[in-house]
Structure formats: structure tokens, C-alpha cells
Amino acid sequence: MTQGRPDPQVLRRHLAALREALSHLGRYGGRTAAELRADTGLR
User: Fold this and answer.
1) Over the stretch 1-43, which tens digit does the pLDDT of each residue have?
2) Among 13, 17, 34, 35, which lies 20 to 30 A Cα-Cα from 27?
3) Whole-prediction pTM value?
4) pLDDT at position 18, please?
């Protein structure tokens, strides 16, 4: 934040990180918690 306003560069960087995280999580959508726990490849 600069002088009471958000820093656009920081916001863009954070939004890009969130987009990347969501794209990785998207492949697990529709699976139940039990299925995710049973998937040993996720550990």
C-alpha cells in the first residue's frame, strides 16, 4: 500500500498467484473428501 492506496503491482502479483493456485486445485473439483484422502499421489 502506498499513501493509503493499494499498490497495483502488488495486487496484480497476488491475483496472479491466486489464479495459479486455483488452476492447480481445479483438477480436484468434483471429488469427495474421502476420494482425495484415499489418493496416495496427493501426499
Assistant:
1) 557 888 999 999 999 999 999 998 888 899 999 999 999 887 7
2) 13
3) 0.60
4) 97
Positive or negative, the Cα torsion across 7, 9, 15, 17?
negative
CA distance 29 to 22: 10
- How many CA atoms, within 13 angstroms, populate the side-chain half-sphere of residue 22? 6
Nearest to 31 by CA among 23, 43, 39: 39
Q: Report the Cα–Cα distance between both ends of the chain, in Å, rounded.
A: 37
| CA separation for the pair 11, 18 (Å, rounded) | 11
